[in-house]
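User: Here's a protein and a ligand (iron/sulfur cluster). What would the complex look like?
Assistant: Let me lay out the input and then the predicted complex.
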Amino acid sequence: MDEIKKNLIGLSRAELIDEMARIGEKPFRAKQLWHWMYNRGETDFAVMSSISKVMQARLSETFEVRRPKVERELLSTDGTRKWLLKFDDGNEAETVFIPDMDEERGSVCISTQVGCTLTCKFCHTGTQLLVRNLTAAEIVGQFMAGRDAYGEWPTPDDTGRMLSNIVVMGMGEPLYNFDNVATALEILMDGEGIGISRRRITLSTSGVVPMMKVCGERLGVNLAISLHAVTDEIRDRIMPINKKYPLRELIQACHDYPGASNARRITFEYVMLKGVNDSAADARALLKLIKGLPAKFNLIPFNPWPGSEFECSDHKTVKAFSDILQDAGYAAPIRWPRGRDILAACGQLRSESQRQKKTQPES
Ligand code: SAH
Ligand code: SF4
């Protein structure tokens, strides 16, 4: 294997300054590099014209500005785009871009782990055997690869950019990889670089209670909770993490989440599973459960995958469930799947690449 040079992407500002100090450079060098890497999107030291030729050569001896490799790009008929990214060790993850309905902006859905340890029964990602945390470089790299694809460098003013929002809703449990996720999001939020506001970032957790406050205090991003059930009995069954952090503790942690307000509501994601959690009584119990919280809902029709034990609730049932929440004054949009034709919908990530691997062994 070729020797891999140290990637400067994914280092926090402090780490980048340290790296420069190790080669005898002042913090100013880190500031220059930050601008080139994250504002201009540049990967080639030779193009970084504010840095002397001698210094460019020195940097390129030791370092690299590297992106994950785009193995495949798929475009859905509905405008959703999916990138299969390959990391240095050969592991893969998927990043999805979901345009808004007006197609002028959209969200990049990023993954935080290869696979997931949490084995929620309705989620295909949870069935994968191989799990590892993604590094900060790999998390930032997903967003940057998306920007490359849309040619959105240098970072423009806040107007007219497609990749305007980030949802941390891909593969993996972000609060089980919090250090790397936090470093990555701090890089993505940095005003001298990519500069995505924390108000345009939503992090989704299955409910890692002790990390929720830490997340709110350090990052201040919007919070989404994968709730999916209104009783411990059902939630224990479909989301094993509930046995560790039951509903009462989870809801208390939502009350304690720093920065939640009527202007910045907590999103409760709720996957609609036929006959499991989708009755009118469930909807009313849901209202009771989140009473007093600044809340909104995201109803996700279940996306089936081969071998899954659930069915999606009927259209009528989903609509009735949404109506009950809406009549009580809450936003409760139904998130009809996007990118289904390219398996980019919730809970389907990585399945295609895994299946291909099984049928096409590497030569
Ligand atoms: N691990 C984090 C981030 C993933 S977010 C979490 O669970 O919150 C992706 C959302 O899609 C979560 O709410 C997840 O519960 C949901 N989901 C998983 N599998 C799904 C499926 N097959 N159909 C619909 N939604 C699914
Ligand atoms: Fe992991 Fe989230 Fe899937 Fe559960 S729903 S297995 S936490 S990725």
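Summary: The longest strand covers residues 92-99.
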